[in-house]
Amino acid sequence: MENVDLVVLRTLLDWRRSGKRALLATVVRTWGSSPRPIGSIMALCEDGSVVGSISGGCIEDDLIRSYGASKEFPSGPPQFLKYGITADEAHRFGLPCGGTLELLLEFEIDVEMLSQLVQQLSSGLLVQRITRLNDGVVQLSKVNAPEALSVSSQELRNTFGPEYRMLIIGAGQLSEYLAIMALFNGFNVTVCDPRAEYRGSWKVEGVTLTSEMPDDVVIAMKLDSRSCVVALTHDPKLDDLALLDALQTKAFYIGAIGSRRNSEARKQRLIEHFGHTEESISGLRGPIGIYIGSKTPPEIAVSVMAEILAVKNSVQLPRDMQVAIAKGGAGIKQDDPGTLSCGI
Hints:
Blueprint: H1 4-17, E1 22-31, E2 41-45, E3 50-52, H2 58-67, E4 79-83, H3 87-92, E5 100-107, H4 111-122, E6 127-132, E7 138-142, E8 150-151, E9 155-160, E10 165-169, H5 173-184, E11 188-192, H6 196-199, E12 208-210, H7 214-221, E13 227-231, H8 236-246, E14 253-256, H9 260-274, E15 284-285, H10 297-312, H11 323-329, H12 337-340
Parallel strand pairs: 10-11, 10-13, 11-12, 13-14, 14-15
Antiparallel strand pairs: 1-2, 1-5, 2-3, 4-5, 6-7, 6-9, 8-9
Helix pairs in contact: 1-4, 5-10, 7-8
């Protein structure tokens, strides 16, 4: 599944290329609680078709009623539109109590500029879209790091990034479930496993499957701040070197499956045999996941995916949700293979 923003922009491009009128709505400000974050986008076609989301659905419905299937579809420079200013409006539009959001609506989206944006994003570039508010003229600028949306009286600046990437080491059953969830959340997923017996039974479509050694794949992927690495083989020969190389990158999440005891043994191997210190491997996560009492591969995958998304979204999880702390508090024995084999 593609990055949500790219899906919206690609669909909008298809509409415009076919000669249809359409608008692009962007959440530019919020006050109080808001169902969607600043920077969220949706596109609305003149026939009432919609892609993307800026609320829980009620505001989309109102925009469809106002502009969809309209004989006089709006045109001209961008317009600001506020929802949820009063308590009655907040209730009407399904906004949380006190919630208010402001949209910027853009009309007559230029096909050439939109095509360039979609092409650049599809190529993995990070692009800032700058919209001049007095006339709607758009300029594209390549950037090196993500930037928060900004809006002034003259322009809107919104940064669109390439897909988040996930590298999974190992092609076992747990990897299949995690890959499915990652795809569902818009990640571009690569699975590497030099073991033919595991690759032969792989069933998940939309994933890049490679037989290269994991450490070679880590280097080749040039992992950045929108990348994560998850080692799921339990095999030090496959996991350790790849994890070491990953720790030298800006990947936002690096973790390996295993019990508390196995995770501690891994850290000691890296320190004793590869000259690392506790500080230099502090970015390595393990046991991975959040504690939800997982027992089966799909449950474990949910746990791991939840932690990855929390880190991606800069959410600090409570200590009692960490696997090692939760299990330690529950009095689970270290040598209980039935509950600690995967560290979840």
